Amino acid sequence: QRMQREMNVWRNLNHPNILPFIGWCILGSKSCMVSPWMENGDALKYVRRRPQANRLWMLVQVGEGLHYLHTRPRNPVIHGDLKAANVFISSTGVARITDFGLSELVEDEKAPRCSMAWYCGGNPRWQAPELLSAGSHEAQAAWSTISNYTIISPQIFTGQVPFFYLSVNTTLSVFNMVLDGKLPEHPLDKDVATRGLDDRMWELMTTCWSVDPTKRPSAGDILSHLAAALRGRPDDDSDSKGPASTRPGKRARVIEPPVKVEESDTSIHGFIH
To answer: Cβ contacts of residue 13 below 8 Å, gap of 6+?
Structure first.
């Protein structure tokens, strides 16, 4: 059922910052979904390998994909498990969102509700507090995803998972921190600020983590802030922006390497090599 659910959402998506769905197949006893091979792996592994990667540009790309999901003319999509592990980087440096197993199709834009899958899946490190509260099924899913999106931002800048500094670093301790409205600590490392996580960027993120979901900016608003910040910075790593054809304002066909096959019967998607 999860595979069917994910395919129903994924197969109808078409955007440069969404990992394409190619099809499905059966390998032995496993049902698998097929997507293009992303040789640079996920976003967290990528920035750990490449300290000079342009992280602001990476976040702009993720924001573009998220904005597309939220503003599709028919059936906007709410991603239920957005985190760095679910953002893959292509050979040309293009960031692409994947893993739509907990995503929701919104049929009525005036009433975007969360399904029970949101409360049974995902990880509290990346979840909005309203998604962890018992009986809060009336949470606005799009606003919750905005919180998820900006939770991955410090992770991209620092290379560390949210709340990595807790002395008792368990799922339960993180759950309680998020439920209490506690925010991740502001990284004070000068290298992190140099990469783009300065005071203004941190202020934007804390706005996105507002306990009141209605006070969070939209994906479009966040993109405007990120684009302005990006224009004011030199290129950290031209490769991390991909070829000129993939940069803002230009569109061209991007040729991807061969496909890889994704297992569907694991709680966290892995790949068959």
So the answer is: 21, 68, 69, 77, 100
Which secondary-structure segment (H or E) carries 259? strand 259-263
Q: Find where tokens 């802030």 sit.
A: 225
The DSSP result for 147-176, as a single string, is HHHHHHHHHHHHSS-TTTT-SS--HHHHHH
Nearest to 21, CA basis, from 39, 4, 7: 7
Domains of the chain listed by start with CATH number: 40-250 (1.10.510.10)
Predicted model pTM: 0.69
CA 84 → CA 25, 95, 96, 140, distances in Å? 26, 10, 10, 22
Q: Are 126 and 32 in contact (CB under 8 A)?
A: no
Average pLDDT over residues 47-62: 91
E strand map for 5-155: 23-27, 30-36, 77-78, 87-89, 95-97, 104-105
C-alpha 198 chain-centroid distance: 21
Q: What pLDDT score was predicted for residue 40?
A: 94
